[in-house]
């Protein structure tokens, strides 16, 4: 340092006292000049912060770095403190709506979150100078806050934010070069006691790439929602799990090995992702699907080319799934005059006719008065069925929670049972009655387009508490009772089959024949007749059967007809498995699923099933019961601390929800207090946790996301994809999944994606190319969250799907 240099000069002796006096005076003057220069160098960065506040097009990142480098001097300079701390109160007010208050989080959860970031720094840094290290981190965080505030100010003034972000990166590099010129002189004045702080500053600078991503995401959020920044050191929003639950976010652990969550990410990788993003936006072009089905296009059900090649349609093969080899990547058009769906519960009684412009069903079923066209609306008659009065053992909403409604029509039965705390999976084919499942979904009632044809339904065995079929025309008795035996596979031991059909109460020869055949078949299946009654409203007959709970009846039959299935036949195997005319034995071992009835609702939703044992390893690597509980606690925290408050979602507009990768169904369980229902999807190549989901009183379906889902376009208000896109990218057509998401999501519907940062960045570009609104992006430790909303935009250029043209 200059001081040492002149000290050595001062050590030279002179023979003249006069010269010695002059030398001392000069030395003192030079020392004062040196002190003044040091002081002015520490003030310069603070002055730069004032300048950058005045210039709206500059970013505060240089101020952060300068403050970090000169932290020791800045803390001793009282005049510099207001410039750093002045924005605190305003930033705090902007942050509240995106962050959870101290009271919203458990005390231990807050501590864990704070300790994670602190401990990561402590493990990597010198223990010396701990207090200084915390100061550096605090002042570093002021930068993004100021930038978000400046972004909001720019928005008011009408200045483009994207240019600010790009110029911000350039200014950072330029200012870094200026700072580097000062470092040799500044480093020479650091004492041994300040080395710990120097190391912290250096490591914090290495994180600059990560910080830039956060700044861009915060600015983007300000442009869309004006809700302030999401980055905060204390009480961060629960978009990611805390330290104690960090393993839950890593859901690929069980399939892809350990998941790395490093504190410091590669700066070069971040810059590569950032530089490639504008290029990606220009490469995406979208076209409108030109098909015979038009706005109702379901790729796997409207593959007309494959349907025309079928040898027979005797067993409704033409209503089964026939997925194209190359799934479409175009966007499905909307009906003319489409409007935002009516909110629940009003939607149960009426929907916009233009949203589902089909009148044929109303014409065919008009005499039954349960669906009519009334001006701009389709109206539905919701009549309370009296069957619950006739069978007290069913105990709707307590013992019986999950119901399968076969041949559901417009699903009024399922709509009524919501008031009884019953979830009903309504099922019907895409048939000549036009879009009856689409009517159900538009009303806010769960439904799937499927048919009981030649294959098993995509559900595990022994999961439904009740199976219902009203005004039922399904030929249960033919071909050895193959279709009824499929219901036997799906029904829990002790579960009920509620059948309403003309053979029960009419005496026409055909009806009498069917009734006699059904009596013989159900007796051979060991089903017990609970009651046969007539509905008090319409006089329709209702027969209620109960499935046996033991194998004794099977063993006492005089003939093995229907036969028992082979022991090697897995009742849970349901993806493209042919139907068989056989029955599976009833589980009897105390630890086997199906040997006991689940606990009553709602107790069953939060407790691990009795058949999950600690000897089994769960999805996240813990003993299965612990895994279940940890997953549930994780999603309860995420929902209560982030999804319900932090994202700005108006939940009154959300009714139909799909969890595209559900695992244990924790998200659905955490949302159960809301007026929503969640379709839980378990991928066919993922751990088979769907029986667990049903055991806790929820429902779902197996699916392969390399194919189209069996639902109509514009079915869901909210999609949730937790580490799904990264898996699909390695497996099949990534863009086809994006197009499928657009197909099943309603206009103004929302999607929450949790995935790797590079996937989040790519999806953000893709969604922007589709004119979607990016409401929020967030990244941390190579993990990211994206919250976006679909708009009414549709492309004008068309793409003809040849295999979907009649």
From TrEMBL:
<feature type="compositionally biased region" description="Basic and acidic residues">
    <location>
        <begin position="179"/>
        <end position="236"/>
    </location>
</feature>
<keyword id="KW-1133">Transmembrane helix</keyword>
<dbReference type="Pfam" id="PF03141">
    <property type="entry name" value="Methyltransf_29"/>
</dbReference>
<feature type="compositionally biased region" description="Polar residues">
    <location>
        <begin position="243"/>
        <end position="266"/>
    </location>
</feature>
<feature type="compositionally biased region" description="Basic and acidic residues">
    <location>
        <begin position="72"/>
        <end position="99"/>
    </location>
</feature>
<keyword id="KW-0325">Glycoprotein</keyword>
<dbReference type="InterPro" id="IPR029063">
    <property type="entry name" value="SAM-dependent_MTases_sf"/>
</dbReference>
<feature type="transmembrane region" description="Helical">
    <location>
        <begin position="21"/>
        <end position="39"/>
    </location>
</feature>
<dbReference type="InterPro" id="IPR004159">
    <property type="entry name" value="Put_SAM_MeTrfase"/>
</dbReference>
<keyword id="KW-0472">Membrane</keyword>
<keyword id="KW-0808">Transferase</keyword>
<dbReference type="GO" id="GO:0008168">
    <property type="term" value="F:methyltransferase activity"/>
</dbReference>
<keyword id="KW-0735">Signal-anchor</keyword>
<feature type="region of interest" description="Disordered">
    <location>
        <begin position="45"/>
        <end position="281"/>
    </location>
</feature>
<protein>
    <submittedName>
        <fullName>Methyltransferase PMT26</fullName>
    </submittedName>
</protein>
<feature type="compositionally biased region" description="Basic and acidic residues">
    <location>
        <begin position="122"/>
        <end position="168"/>
    </location>
</feature>
<dbReference type="GO" id="GO:0032259">
    <property type="term" value="P:methylation"/>
</dbReference>
<dbReference type="GO" id="GO:0016020">
    <property type="term" value="C:membrane"/>
</dbReference>
<keyword id="KW-0812">Transmembrane</keyword>
<feature type="compositionally biased region" description="Polar residues">
    <location>
        <begin position="112"/>
        <end position="121"/>
    </location>
</feature>
<dbReference type="GO" id="GO:0005802">
    <property type="term" value="C:trans-Golgi network"/>
</dbReference>
<dbReference type="GO" id="GO:0005768">
    <property type="term" value="C:endosome"/>
</dbReference>
<comment type="similarity">
    <text>Belongs to the methyltransferase superfamily.</text>
</comment>
<keyword id="KW-0489">Methyltransferase</keyword>
């Amino acid at each position: 340092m200059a001081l040492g240099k002149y000290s050595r000069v001062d050590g030279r002796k002179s023979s003249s006292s006069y010269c010695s006096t002059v030398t001392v005076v000069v030395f003192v003057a030079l020392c004062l000049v040196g002190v003044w220069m040091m002081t002015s160098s520490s003030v310069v960065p603070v002055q730069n912060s004032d300048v950058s506040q005045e210039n709206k097009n500059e970013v505060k990142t240089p101020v952060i770095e300068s403050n970090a480098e000169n932290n020791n001097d800045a803390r001793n300079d009282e005049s510099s403190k207001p410039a750093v701390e002045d924005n605190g109160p305003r930033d705090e007010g902007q942050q509240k709506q995106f962050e959870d208050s101290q009271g919203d989080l458990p005390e231990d959860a807050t501590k864990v979150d704070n300790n994670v970031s602190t401990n990561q720094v402590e493990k990597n840094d010198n223990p010396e100078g701990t207090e200084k290290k915390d100061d550096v981190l605090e002042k570093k965080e002021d930068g993004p806050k100021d930038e978000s505030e400046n972004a909001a100010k720019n928005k008011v003034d009408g200045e483009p934010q994207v240019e600010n972000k790009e110029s911000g990166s350039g200014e950072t590099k330029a200012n870094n070069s200026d700072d580097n010129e000062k470092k040799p002189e500044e480093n020479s004045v650091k004492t041994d006691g300040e080395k710990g702080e120097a190391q912290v500053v250096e490591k914090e600078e290495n994180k600059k790439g990560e910080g830039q991503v956060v700044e861009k995401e915060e600015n983007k959020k300000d442009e869309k929602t004006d809700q302030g920044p999401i980055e905060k050191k204390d009480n961060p929003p629960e978009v990611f799990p805390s330290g104690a639950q960090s393993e839950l976010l890593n859901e690929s652990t069980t399939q892809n090995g350990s998941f790395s969550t490093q504190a410091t990410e590669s700066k070069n990788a971040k810059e590569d992702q950032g530089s490639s993003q504008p290029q990606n936006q220009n490469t995406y072009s979208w076209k409108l699907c030109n098909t015979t089905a038009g706005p109702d296009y379901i790729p796997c059900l409207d593959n007309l080319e494959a349907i025309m090649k079928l040898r027979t349609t005797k067993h409704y093969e033409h209503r089964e799934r026939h997925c194209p080899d190359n799934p479409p990547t175009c966007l499905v058009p909307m009906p003319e005059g489409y409007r935002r769906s009516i909110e629940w519960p009003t939607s149960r009684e009426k929907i916009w006719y233009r949203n589902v412009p089909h009148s044929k069903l109303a014409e065919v079923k008009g005499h039954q008065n349960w669906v009519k066209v009334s001006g701009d609306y389709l109206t539905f008659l919701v009549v309370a069925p009296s069957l619950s009065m006739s069978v007290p053992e069913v105990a709707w909403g307590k013992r019986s929670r999950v119901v399968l409604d076969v041949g559901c029509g417009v699903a009024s039965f399922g709509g009524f049972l919501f008031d009884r705390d019953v979830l009903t999976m309504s099922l019907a084919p895409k048939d000549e009655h036009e879009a009856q499942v689409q009517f159900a979904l538009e009303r806010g009632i769960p439904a799937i387009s499927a048919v009981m044809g030649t294959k098993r339904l995509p559900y595990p065995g022994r999961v439904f508490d009740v199976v219902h079929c009203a005004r039922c025309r399904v030929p249960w008795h033919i071909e050895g009772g193959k279709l009824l035996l499929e219901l036997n596979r799906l029904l829990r031991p002790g579960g009920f089959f509620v059948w309403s059909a003309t053979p029960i109460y009419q005496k026409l020869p055909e009806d009498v024949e069917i009734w006699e055949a059904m009596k013989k078949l159900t007796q051979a299946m060991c089903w017990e007749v609970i009651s046969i009654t007539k509905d008090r409203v319409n006089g329709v007959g209702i027969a209620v059967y109960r499935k046996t709970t033991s194998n004794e009846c099977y063993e006492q039959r005089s003939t093995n007809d229907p036969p028992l299935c082979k022991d090697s036949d897995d009742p849970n195997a349901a993806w493209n498995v042919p139907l068989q005319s056989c029955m599976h034995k009833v589980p009897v071992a105390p630890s086997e699923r199906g040997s006991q009835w689940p606990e009553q609702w709602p107790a069953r939703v939060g407790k691990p099933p009795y058949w999950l044992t600690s000897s089994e390893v769960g999805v996240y690597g813990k003993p299965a019961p612990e895994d279940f509980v940890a997953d549930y606690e994780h999603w309860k925290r995420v929902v209560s601390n982030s999804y319900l408050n932090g994202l700005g979602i108006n939940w009154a507009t959300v009714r139909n929800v799909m969890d595209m990768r559900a695992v244990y169904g924790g998200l659905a369980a955490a949302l159960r207090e809301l007026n929503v229902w969640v379709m839980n999807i378990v991928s066919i190549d993922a751990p088979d946790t769907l029986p667990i989901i049903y055991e806790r009183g929820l429902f779902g379906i197996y699916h392969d996301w390399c194919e189209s889902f069996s639902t109509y376009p514009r079915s869901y208000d909210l999609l949730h994809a937790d580490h799904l896109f990264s898996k699909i990218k390695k497996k099949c057509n990534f863009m086809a999944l994006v197009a499928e998401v657009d197909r099943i999501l309603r206009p103004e519907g929302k999607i929450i994606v949790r995935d790797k940062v590079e996937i989040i960045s790519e999806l953000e570009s893709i969604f922007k190319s589709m004119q979607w609104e990016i409401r929020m992006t967030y990244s941390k430790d190579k993990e990211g969250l994206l919250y976006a909303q679909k708009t009414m935009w549709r492309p004008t250029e068309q793409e003809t799907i040849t295999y979907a043209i009649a």
